[in-house]
Fold these 4 entries.
Entry 1:
Amino acid sequence: MHLYRAHVLVCAGSNCSIKGHRAVREALTREIIGRGLGGEVKVVETGCFGLCEQGPTIVVYPEGVLYCRVTGEDVPELVGNHLLKGRRVERLMYREATRPVAVQTVPELSYFRKQVRVVLDNCGVIDPDSLEEYIGHGGYSALARVLDGDPAAVVTEVKASGLRGRGGAGFPTGLKWEFGARAPGPVRYVVCNADEGEPGTFKDRLILEGDPHRILEGMAICGFAIGARQGYIYIRGEYGLSISRLEHSIRSARELGLLGENIFNSGFNFDVEVRFGAGAYVCGEETALFESLEGKRGEPRIKPPYPTESGLFGRPTVINNVETLANIPPIINRGAAWYSGIGTDTCPGTKV
């Protein structure tokens, strides 16, 4: 494995893409190669850093120096000073309204200083299109861990964590999984609700753009826990970047045997498909989403029966939203006690 002395992380989320991140990335690549630094410095596209209004943003490691509103014209100065001479370009560094001096690194920002990231842990850190980078940050280790054990133990762990659905209703996730696992019948489904319809809401989009494999891993763990072999991600058709990264991630996971048949030689089979919504707000409601997935008009069904009894195609179905599923791998890896120790007694964990 080639070791670089520096990594330049370029935010490639939707907002920075609109503001011209591609021109910055291409200029960085040209300048780094042109100055003979191709073997020393690596440019990596990542998910959102969380400073959308300051885009395009880049972070230079190992120091972790944050630069904001970078343009292609700024790149020669950045490469020549920071990467060649070790001198930071202060005019491009972030300044908080209450602190006139330049903020040196992302952890020094007042907004981020006290945060404990769980769901967004990898966002802005890894290349979302790289399965290898996800694995290098512990990816799919939670799935490997559960496949060595009992499905009922997974449900018990999720229940003990106190995780509640992050889609708005706050229903206990472990209890929903328990209902799905106990439902009679040979066929069950896992559905990820990525139809983020609330105006101005886009945290699920940022998770999908920055860490898509985490959602796939969470779905596979759910599939093992409830006895499902098939999962579907229902996503807004407007989320083009999320869709492309999900589809790429699914292909990569299949190629490495992390989705499909006999995952980790365990005998467990599970696969995921992406299906697009047409923008109907009502399809964010779980039963209307099922109708749309089945090719019908997206209209809510009468309850009961509930989805864990009769959901997609009339089969028992566990449906969770993006953020809920993104919490599953860290719960499995670090334990229910760790997770329940964060947040409040009635709703443990972080928001993102």
Entry 2:
Amino acid sequence: MTSDRGWTFWVLVGLLVVGHFVLHLAIGLGATAPDLLTPALLLAARRIRGAVAAGLGLVLGLLQDSLSLDAFGAEAVTLTLLGYLGSRSRDLFVGDGTVFLLVYLFLGKWLHDVIVYALSGVPAQAEPLTWLLVFAPLAAVYTALAGVTAVAAYRSVSGER
């Protein structure tokens, strides 16, 4: 996903961030809407240095935390850590194929949910093990599919491979 027209990629990241808040707040879908902040951060982190990715994660986490009534700071810490780890993944994995992106976004979202759980606790309606091994992976699949769909749309519009 590298190109001379890098600004189009950052438009995608911005649209994912704006889309996240539109779906969750303006339209009011809440938990039924996919988490688009995590894919936006993970996709951006593959193109920027670790410190910048961590800073972007901190900003996105603070935006998300500003809407939370409980566990303030959990999203900021989580997205900061994910931004840094996502940036470091460039050194371990090369390529931007669809299958790679699907697995990358799935693991990133699942790790996000595990870290948020560790920092703030599990939702009251489920047991911890059930939540971590059933609901979190389902949310990760949903988020990964939304992220891969956004990247596919971006690639078709921008002409990137």
Entry 3:
Amino acid sequence: MNLREKFIWNMIVLCCISALLWNTWGQFNKHTEIDKAYDKFINEEVGTDKELQNMVSSLEENLNIRQNLKFKPKENPLDLTRVVVLDGDISARGVKGIECSGIITDKDGSLETICTYRSKRYVVAIGDSIGGGIVSDISSNKVHIKKDKENIILEIY
């Protein structure tokens, strides 16, 4: 064999060794992946998958919260006087069906106002309730009513 043939054989052997190392490395990586999957399969108990149990318990908890939720509307949805004005009914005027029309001053200086709610007249002072709210302040031209954490301001006519 001359030098040229030895060089060609050495190159072929080098290519074969590099291909062999490349394939060995690939097979080693595949083996580690398969080994991990097999260990996971062996350690997994049938019917007690923790991820599935956690998902089911969170879904049951969410369903329980939704079933216990109580919907409380602010206003009665069946009250047609909020939409339709009936003859002789003044409950559609004002705010939330409450209309205040005058102020009365007592001897001791406390203010009271005359309010109409659902066609009935009421004389209310600070702290009284009307229309599901509590009168918090009465001034010379406005009445403040707190209802459902909301402050309603009514003009006095």
Entry 4:
Amino acid sequence: MSDTGHAHHFLSRLDRLSVPHLDLALSLYRDDALLRHILSTSRVPEGAERVAVSLADPVKGPFLVVTRDGKFVTCLGEGMSAKNLHVVTRERLDAVIGRVTRLRERSERAIAAQDNAREFMSALYDRGPWFTREQFQAVAAMQPFLATHLLRWIIEDFMDVQTMRQRLLREVPKSGKLHRRFDELLHVFWCRSWTLGHLSVLAAMDGRAPYEHLPEAARDPFLRLSFSWLSVSQSLVGNALRGLWSAARFGKELLPVYKKDNDKADTLLQTVDAVFTLAVMGCRHARLRAEIRKALSPNDLPPEAPRFVAAIRTLALQVLDAEDKHGPTSVLHQHGREGATRAVAFAKRLPPTSPYHFKEIEDVPPEIAYRVLLLDGTDFVNHREAIVPMTYALQWLSHATADDLYLPADYIAAVRTPYDPSHVLAILRDDRKIEKSALAEAAKAQQTGPARSAPCPCGSGKKYKRCCGEG
């Protein structure tokens, strides 16, 4: 039958469909590109010349019957059999239509924003924690065209940030200011640390879909990557939350990586990264929850494990328990209350005429309260009290969209504070203390004889370094 014949036959059978199904059938009929995309992503078996697209039930129908290249053949009303045809389920149909709709909307925004692309990309690298929702949406509009580049950029930027960190750690004085020749490097380091979180969200916002077409050789290294570590390792609260969200978006593919990281984690930073990522993943993906709950059990820890490992695992398990309750929980309530308290604190420096001059926590709308923690630049490794608010955020984070991770421009403009180099210096000084302590512990563990200042074991009464250990 010719294409015209197929179309005429199809249109003549539309009376088999109810009104809601008729609207969907006609929308697919008018959108050849959408239908071809649905078929190309539905793994139609080789040799299958016709496909049944279910408009409701995958067994009872109704169905649209199309050729594998997207030509319409006929309609099968509810109860008519699609026997021997490969079926594209309604669930699959809705998912693909939703994704294509979002991509088209982003493409339209990308075209509208193309004259300002340089400005938005500069903001991504220069705004630090103050990257706005509108700026994020403008860059996200270009994400479908940048997806495969984003993974490379984030790894390259991570290496750059690590290099800057090591350079600054060598130059930071014990007290006082850094020499002014390093002012620009310090500022770039601070902004780029936050960029890692923004890039993580952009790279992960569509989950696995943008990377499914990559050859296996290119996908394998990614599937062994602790994706959240690129952001969490900067130890900044807001940045870490974006990294946790991003890794959880990939779900099952990264689960083996994080279970392995969880088993070997023995520093606070490693533990927060692995345990909290698993918690967000478990809240987001119900099918993985039982496996993740078992992995997070504190009962199987070795005796030498630091005490904070069991404590953080216990907090994460409480979050998973809250998710099982299906509805508003004390964890979500506490997260909202924590954010509202911060928003009221921000409001104290705003004029009374500001729409964000909140006097009571009850005045703060949820769209502000749930997101304020993402502005927090506290170093949670050296200020461990920040870990509890992070825990409260995990359940909300698991259900958040990419846009939810950013606050609107007018709110950012109201609460934004100037860049404070002394805050960044304090973080670096704390980092250096941790690094020196770790080196000292490693040296102590390798030491075979008595400490150099300890009494000499020969009984002379002298210090070991002045006696048998001399030279």
